[in-house]
Backbone:
């Protein structure tokens, strides 16, 4: 049974994020990000180099955890948690990626500080089943 384009694109994004953010294998990550990558994030300098340089500047404790992931045609949205990057709170992000011919070509994100149980009016965690420790 062959995968749909949406299934392939979701798998591609998860592999790309793990390769760059968790494994920090920049050479391998080049195969996932276009050299002409378009970056819309307010936190990241332009292009693939801007993204890679940001990750290189972060502590080795940086960790990315993916959560819910959805795809439609060439777009993938992944809800995830960034932790261990040197700020007092984790970031919860919805990353929106456009994929063309099996490579990430464009990115937008929505980022929010992760709330603690004491801060959460809903009393529900923003990511996963538990509040961060």
Residues:
């Amino acid at each position: 049974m062959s995968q749909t384009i949406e299934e392939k694109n979701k798998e591609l994004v998860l592999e790309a994020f793990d390769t760059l953010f968790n494994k920090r294998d920049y050479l391998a990550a080049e195969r996932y990000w276009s050299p002409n990558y378009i970056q819309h994030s307010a936190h990241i300098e332009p292009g693939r180099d801007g993204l890679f340089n940001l990750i290189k500047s972060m502590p080795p404790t940086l960790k990315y955890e993916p959560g819910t992931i959805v795809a439609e045609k060439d777009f993938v949205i992944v809800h995830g948690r960034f932790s261990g990057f040197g700020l007092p709170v984790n970031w919860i992000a919805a990353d929106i990626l456009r994929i063309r011919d099996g490579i990430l070509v464009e990115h937008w994100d929505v980022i929010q500080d992760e709330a603690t149980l004491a801060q959460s009016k809903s009393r529900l965690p923003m990511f996963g089943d538990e509040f961060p420790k």
